[in-house]
Design a protein that fits this description.
It contains two helices and four strands. It is an alpha+beta fold.
């Protein structure tokens, strides 16, 4: 794994971990195939880019609530 690949993998993993911390509740963030996240971590640990093919699919469920205060939307 070269430095550019390592940087891309580390950035992707950091972004996914950030999403997981922002949406920790069940059903908010769901990975299409959780093993791809494991493969990404393994590729970084081993330095072998071939372990991770790329492309982690996920679904993010958001609930947006609208609050009305004094007839003005907040």
């Amino acid at each position: 794994m070269n430095d550019v690949e390592r940087n891309h993998f580390e950035t992707q993993l950091s972004e996914l971990e950030l999403l997981m911390s922002m949406y920790p509740n069940k059903g908010e963030l769901e990975f299409d195939d959780a093993s791809e996240l494991t493969n990404l971590r393994a590729a970084l640990e081993s330095g072998n880019a071939r372990i991770y093919v790329g492309g982690i699919g996920f679904t993010l469920q958001l609930s947006i609530k609208q609050v009305v205060v004094n007839s003005t939307f907040v």
